[in-house]
Amino acid sequence: MALFKKKRSQPEEPMDLESVMKKYDRESNVRIWEGRPKLAVTCILAVFSIFCLYVTLFASWLEELRLTSFMAFIVFLGYLVYPARKGQQKVNFIPWYDIVLMLAGTGSFLYFTFNAMTIIQQGSFFQWYQILIGIVGILTLAEVCRRSVGLPILCVAAFFILYALIWGLANPSFWGKLNYTVRYLFYSKEGIFSTPVNVCSKFIVVFIIFGAFLERTGIADFFINIANAFVGGFSGGPAKVAVVASAMEGMVSGSSVANTVGSGSVTIPLMKKTGYKPEFAGAAEAAASTGGQIMPPIMGAAAFLMADYVQVPYSTIAVKAILPAVLYFTGIFVAVHLEAKKLGLKGLPKEELPKLKPLLKQVYLLLPLVLLIYLVGTSQRSIQYAAALAILAAIFVSLFNKGNRITPKRILEALAAGGQGTITVAAACGVAGIIAGTITMTGLANTMINGIVALAGNHVIIALFLTMVCCIILGMGVPTTANYCIMASTCAPILIRMGVPAIAAHFFVFYFGIVADLTPPVALAAYAGAAIAQANPMKTALTSTKLAIAAFIVPYIFALNPALLFIDTNALKVVTICVTSFIGIFSIASALEGYLLHHMPMYQRIVIALGGLMLIDPQPLTDVIGIVLVGIMVLTQYVTRKKAVAA
């Protein structure tokens, strides 16, 4: 989502937020167009958005036609928008080699579009030039992905393709292996045009466009102000504002870096002013903003893919995500509260807080979200149709907000922003499809599954731990969407075979793919927060990992006890798991902070952390032990504090 412009507060020193976005968010490294060329590019992007809306809402095209034409647009726009290298760009300039790549790549996908029926019917016999066209299509898409997403995901894809061409396929000749690989990855629905691109073109693109429209209603400022009004005056108020505002912004945007820069431009300077250390301020915003990808109703793009992989309605995914998301944000809220108490920080002065009454008059800005939640939750309409109606509602509510009224010009800008935002997700989905397709094509998925199952034995916790490590390592260089696609094809089946319910297994890999945005050494959201806070990037990343400890605990809770996801449960079980989970998260957060009712010596931190970890396991015995250990430490802290006050 594009950068939100804030007016309430500025950093202590001038901070070029655009440069921060360009440094940590590849989507922001775009060509510079001005004047008529800018208008032309804007119109082309808007036409793409309109094309996507038309196809997904009204057209009944053959799937091969829909997906190939969609990817032809993506390749064309990818070279139009993204330069080959980061850094200074010439205004209104595109080099000749980019034009060649643009036309060659677009032509490759359009060749499939206009010859779809012939290709479908010709079986396994392909001419040499068709294989060449497929190679050009794959390589030009890979280059778009490199420019808009980054190099690490291509390294993963290259590894698996080389594995297929050298060892993974039985055909003895290199040409035979190459022929089969290109046919499988480019001319079938098992590679580029598999589930990720299908879901992106069908669902994700509409929600990206919806987010672009909703942003222009001024809802981000509303979220920050309403959070300030409710929690800004409490101890360490600005950090709590960051958590609450990011949770609300997460309902409409799944971009970690954009959320961090957008709301962080306001909250981070306020946190520093209140007394938080710079690295803590940047980390708190990054940890809260990263949670946007797990916050219903929109969540991150991977959530739409999950619905397709697990074969359940998206509304089911959104409902099951509620309790884990609440626990995640509760964990961060507790951590910033304890830090504020430890440092003796106050809230914002009453005169600096926004008045609640004027803000309540802007509650109409929530209408598009309420409408979307209602339509998706009641399944009265398809989720694409629900998002389209929500777009119209966003335009309508903007008419009552003079400063953010969506005029025809801003409609064009929103459509263009939606089209541009789709390029990165679609490119990542296409390459993720190549990776997943190669793993399936070579049978490597079964080999990996059998190997890890044998290694884990009958111990689910070992399989969960190994899966977590794989997700975090892969996520350090691969976007969440692509990370999820790969792990859904490899590690999720392992957990399912070990007895974890399918939805819980997919949620597990989804969560740990997201955590990579905070985990060093590639913690882009944390680094963006550090840039705004003018703090040490590595210290900020380590602090954000500590603050987001709930993200490392909650997945184990719902994998071991699916009641948290409303699976095979009742109201009493849900309440019980929520209470024990909250106590566990609170205990571990206090152990990491070294503060509960007052400063904690090391032995108390160890005991209360052990008690919190015990509460992760859903067994009654471990719950009782955990509560007893936590209770003893709370009582000890209470007694020692009382003695200190009396003295």
Protein described:
It contains 30 helices and no strands. It starts with 16 loop residues before the first helix and ends with a helix. With 647 residues, it is mainly alpha-helical. Among the domains are: 17-197, no CATH class; 570-647. The protein has helices spanning 17-24, 35-57, 63-81, 96-114, 116-121, 128-148, 152-168, 174-186, 195-215, 219-231, 237-249, 256-274, 278-290, 301-310, 314-320, 322-343, 356-360, 367-378, 383-398, 408-442, 444-456, 460-475, 480-497, 502-515, 524-533, 537-547, 549-560, 571-593, 602-614, 620-646.
Structural class: mainly alpha
Gap from first CA to last CA? 55 Å
The major pleated sheet works out as: none
Number of distinct beta strands: 0
Low-confidence stretches: 1-14
List the helices and strands in order: HHHHHHHHHHHHHHHHHHHHHHHHHHHHHH
What's the mean pLDDT score?
86
What share of the residues lie within helices?
over 70%
How much beta, percentage-wise? Answer: under 5%
Q: What is the number of helices?
A: 30
Instruction: Give the overall silhouette.
Output: globular
Write the layout of secondary structure elements.
Blueprint: H1 17-24, H2 35-57, H3 63-81, H4 96-114, H5 116-121, H6 128-148, H7 152-168, H8 174-186, H9 195-215, H10 219-231, H11 237-249, H12 256-274, H13 278-290, H14 301-310, H15 314-320, H16 322-343, H17 356-360, H18 367-378, H19 383-398, H20 408-442, H21 444-456, H22 460-475, H23 480-497, H24 502-515, H25 524-533, H26 537-547, H27 549-560, H28 571-593, H29 602-614, H30 620-646
Helix pairs in contact: 1-12, 1-25, 2-3, 2-9, 2-20, 3-4, 3-6, 3-20, 4-6, 6-8, 6-20, 7-8, 7-20, 9-14, 9-19, 9-20, 10-11, 11-12, 11-13, 11-16, 12-13, 12-25, 13-25, 13-26, 14-15, 14-23, 14-24, 16-27, 16-28, 18-19, 20-23, 21-22, 21-23, 22-23, 22-24, 23-24, 24-27, 25-26, 27-28, 28-29, ...
